[in-house]
Amino acid sequence: MDDVDSIFADDVELIKNADVLEEDYTPEQIICRDDVLEQYTSVFKPIYKGRPPQNAFLYGDTGVGKTAATKYLRKNLEQDIEQKNEQLSESEQISLNIIWINCENFTTGDHKTSSYQVAVGIVNRLRSQGNRITGTGYAPQDVYDIMYEELDKLDGTALVILDEVDKIGNDDTLLYELPRARDIGYVENVRVGVIGISNDYTFRKNLSPKVKDSLCETEIKFPAYDAAELGKILRTRAESALYDDAYTTETVNLCSALAYQEASGSARRAIRLLRRSAEIAEEDGSQQVEETHIRQADKDLEYGNIVESLVDQDDEKLYILKAIAHLDEAGLTPARTRTIHTAYSRVVDSYNTKRGKDPLTQRGMFNHLSKLVMFGFVNTIDHNKGVGGGQWNEHEFSDDVVPQKVKDAFDDRNLQWTNIDVRGITE
Ligand SMILES: Nc1ncnc2c1ncn2[C@@H]1O[C@H](COP(=O)(O)OP(=O)(O)O)[C@@H](O)[C@H]1O
Ligand SMILES: [Mg+2]
User: Cα(202)–Cα(212) distance, rounded to whole angstroms?
Assistant: First the structure.
């Protein structure tokens, strides 16, 4: 194809259009979602007709098309309104402003996402660059006031889409007030509609009744895909992403089957798997994606998944994991709770200057350790020597966890990793 000799080039290229396999790619068509799309479309109909907007709550596991369907309908709605406006006189025209917030982006280190931070996000979407506000330094009520002031400068409808809204935590003030902004009298000009999108069904259950009343006016459930549906979605994606000879029906089927088994019907997982497989095949100089490439890709993704779920743990659990990692590397696992507690205390002390907090007691730590066992990161070995022989537990990483994954998780959380000497700790 080209004569240039570069260390970055592979002998064969299987990927024709890599963008199509990116996370943020919006597919031209949403496949296998006719029922859901029909319900969802009717949520947007009032806006198209120039009537007050509806609120809606969408839920379903990760990777089942919630964000994709929303982007797809958003695009269509904006296009169709633009067309409709061409036929209307200026005073009749429909004015729609869509404010899309991914609540996950507002989680930084120890600061959990909150209504407050999402309100700051909304303000900053509406303000020009020089006038943005910071996420600290305002009283919450001031931030809400500024937000309503900015919203009210808009004409017509403001549709606020809160993706990953479950990240907002317990304080659902915003979810209560925003859909009723006009009723409560916070705004006069603009009509506000809110779409909340959640990966977590328990979030819906735990919402306060008044939020359920307003936000969950319409609820749309996105069920998981089965292997055949994943196959259809993936085939369409493969057609535009890969060269024809680069893959076979088996490629698509195996990726779909694995995503179905291991990620409960997530199209995201299926697409990631296809992308990684194709990359591995290219590195391998293969003309086609083979089963071995898919198996290797699957392993790679599993590794990333474990790290991701470690990143989600609270600080105390991360310190315990770090303690076990040090013990593991020193060949001291399985280790008794007392030993882990000593190592854990040293880990906490090493962060102490910044944190100003003491390590938990052994008992306090044990509660967190038990959770880590429950989540499958750590195994417990029971020793029971019968009457008079004593009884104790030892702990070690499960097969899923190795010290490097814990290190990677610390890295992702921007927590510094210092080595701690645990030799002689068991004596
Ligand atoms: N029905 C579908 N048709 C085409 N692509 C889909 C469909 N459902 C999901 N996808 C793709 O799968 C990936 C994950 O979907 P996404 O909408 O981000 O999931 P969720 O928001 O539910 O976690 C995205 O790349 C998306 O484009
Ligand atoms: Mg999503």
Answer: 13
> For 111-130, how does the pLDDT look when each residue is reduced to its tens digit (9 = 90+)?
567 888 899 999 999 998 88
d(CA 253, CA 234): 9
What digits encode the pLDDT tens for the residues 135-165? Answer: 778 888 999 999 999 999 998 999 999 999 9
CA distance 419 to 409: 15
CA pair distance 331, 400, nearest whole angstrom? 18
First-residue to last-residue Cα distance in the chain: 65
Q: In angstroms, how far is CA 117 from the centroid of its own chain?
A: 17
CATH numbers and ranges of domains, the chain: 33-221 (3.40.50.300), 226-310 (1.10.8.60), 313-412 (1.10.10.10)
Amino acid 214 reads: S
Residue nearest to atom 8 of ligand 1 (CA): 65
Name the nearest CA neighbour of 73 among 228, 215, 217, 220: 220
Q: Which alpha helices (DSSP H) does 66-164 contain, by range? A: 66-87, 115-126, 140-152
**Of the given ranges (109-123, 307-321, 355-369, 407-421), which has the lowest mean pLDDT?**
109-123
Residue 230, ligand 1, Cβ within 6 A = no
pLDDT tens-digit readout, 176-223:
999 999 999 999 999 999 999 999 888 888 888 888 888 888 999 999
Question: Are 246 and 278 a contacting pair, CB within 8 Å?
Answer: yes
If one counts every other C-beta atom within 10 angstroms of the C-beta of residue 228, the result is 12
Q: Among residues of the chain, what percentage have pLDDT more than 90?
A: 70
In the reported structure, the alpha carbon of residue 165 is separated from the centroid of ligand 1 by a whole-number distance in angstroms of 17
Integer Cα distance of 303 and 295 in angstroms: 13
Q: Is the CB of 73 under 6 A from ligand 1?
A: no
Residues in Cβ contact with 303 at an 8 Å cutoff, skipping those fewer than 6 apart: 405
Nearest ligand atom owner, CA of 65 = 1
Query: Average pLDDT in the 32-38 region?
Result: 95
pLDDT value at residue 205: 85
The secondary structure of 221-232 as a DSSP string is: E-PPP-HHHHHH
By DSSP bridging, strand 335-336 and strand 157-163 are: unpaired
